[in-house]
Amino acid sequence: MIGSLMLDPEVPRKVKVVLAAVAVYLVSPVDLVPDWIPFLGYLDDVLLVAVVVDGLLNFLDRSILLRYWPRHPTLDATAAVVRRLARWVPAGLKARIFSGR
Fold it and tell me: pTM for the full model?
């Protein structure tokens, strides 16, 4: 999905930059909280993905997301979960991710 969105000419450049940064962070061995710490190690990754998916839902046209979204789970079910998770992240931080500042 990330690769397809990055290749789509309708997706704004700032969204592509966010997607690339998230992909690099997720595959990087360097994390805010090391992955070897049980539960907490993956919590930063889960929250980051939730904030970015929530941002995509708010920033991109729904038809673009539906074009590349896997069929299961549905976009609506995922949206409900990521909105709950994204509430744990300060609003200012969430706003900065897609603002480009």
Answer: 0.82
